[in-house]
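Dear colleagues,

As part of the handover before I leave the project, I'm documenting each prediction I ran so the next person doesn't have to rerun anything. This entry is a single chain, and its sequence is reproduced below.
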Amino acid sequence: MSTSPKIVVLKTREILYTLILLFLAILLIVCLILMFAPKKDASETATLPSGHAGSESSRTAAYVPGIYTAPVTLGEDTMNVEVTVDTNEIQSIRLVNLSEATAASYPLVSPSLEEIAAQILEKQSLDDITCPAENRYTAQLLLLAISDALATAAV
């Protein structure tokens, strides 16, 4: 009994297409795993800090006293929101590293922060902050930065 050898002829183009398809399939699987894998600190960005000094008693500390900053990026420019806190309340909120060019390019940043800061300092909380319709996106960006700084300051 003799067995005849089977010869498989593959064209180079078919091999190349198969390798490219296999690479893309593996890349898609890796991207899906990275996108839908649980994050280690997902709860940190999901909630805004609430119930600050207004609901805290004077015996328990809400913050570690100090000055905390969070970056705000507008286009290619980056500035910082600086939040000063003591143990039970927010003392001040201001912009630092705001260049004249950025202030001219984004004229609603400073007035938005002043309005938001006044509300936060009055309420001592990020809850129920109202933003005017004409600069709501700028206000939301600033609120997120303030929230990040307060999350860093929280005990």
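The beta strands are 66-74, 77-85, 90-96. The helical segments are 12-36, 42-46, 100-105, 109-123, 136-153.

All the best with the project,
I.
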